[in-house]
Amino acid sequence: MSEIQKLEPPLAEAVVRSLKAGDEVVITGVVYTARDMAHKRLCQLIEAGETLPFELEGAVIYFVGPTPARPRRIIGAAGPTTSSRMDAFSPTLIAHGLRAMIGKGYRGSEVREALKRYGAVHLSAIGGAGALLSKHIVSAEVIAYEDLSTEAIRKLQVVDFPAIVAYDANGGTVYKEV
User: Fold this and answer.
1) Which residues are catalytic?
2) What confidence score (pLDDT) does residue 131 get?
3) Which of 17, 112, 118, 153 has a Cα at 20 to 30 A from 173?
4) How far apart are CA 159 and CA 94, in angstroms?
5) Strands 24-33 and 60-62: what pairing?
6) SS3 category, 50
7) Which parts of 5-80 fold into alpha helices (H)?
């Protein structure tokens, strides 16, 4: 069993390229949330040459639409969304500096190629464990697209957020090839 890797965003390319499929990681620092519509808007801003609501270089995006927070809680359940829903947008974001994504499930061939080309990884978090994962989130602030409600972009501060490297920057994966 390998040692758990500690990641602190923003992530350097060299750190990301050192990760291997199957490595366990914990993330402490800033992670941004974004799902389908937020991804689409980010890519439209890139295409238009406009400023993004956060710095992509070295960033980590968590594919999550958290439930509303209960009283005295920072955030509601925050489990991962199916990653393939972001496949149309991820290569563009990776090409502009995104270093890691957190979700669940498979990624398409264009995303896997972008991971290798630009030095990024896809991390998997445990689906169905949103309440447990939310305990690793110590602050949450909507920073863009409030009109998207739970799918707005949030800046999360996380502590020891657990994940597994599902696709690495060298073409490795924890999934069996079909």
Assistant:
1) 39
2) 87
3) 153
4) 24
5) parallel
6) coil
7) 13-18, 36-48
Pairing of strands 153-167, 24-33: antiparallel
Token pair of 56, please?
């992509």
List the structure tokens of 33.
Answer: 């949330």
Q: How far apart are the first and last CA of the chain?
A: 26
CA-CA distances (angstroms) from residue 138 to 31, 90, 103? 11, 26, 19
List, in order, residues 6 or more apart from 177 with CB less than 8 Å away.
none
Tens of pLDDT along 124-173? Answer: 998 778 888 999 999 999 999 999 999 999 999 999 999 999 999 999 99
Candidates 169, 28, 170; CA nearest to 99 is 169
Give me the pLDDT at residue 176, please. 80
Whether domain 8-167 has CATH 3.20.130.10: yes
- Confidence band of 177 (pLDDT split at 50, 70, 90): low
Amino acid identity, residue 60? V
Closest CA to 1 of 23, 33, 20, 16: 23
Q: Which residues of 72-108 are buried (b: 16+ CB within 10 A; e: fewer)?
A: eebbbbbbbbebbebbebbbbbbeebbbbbbbbbbbe
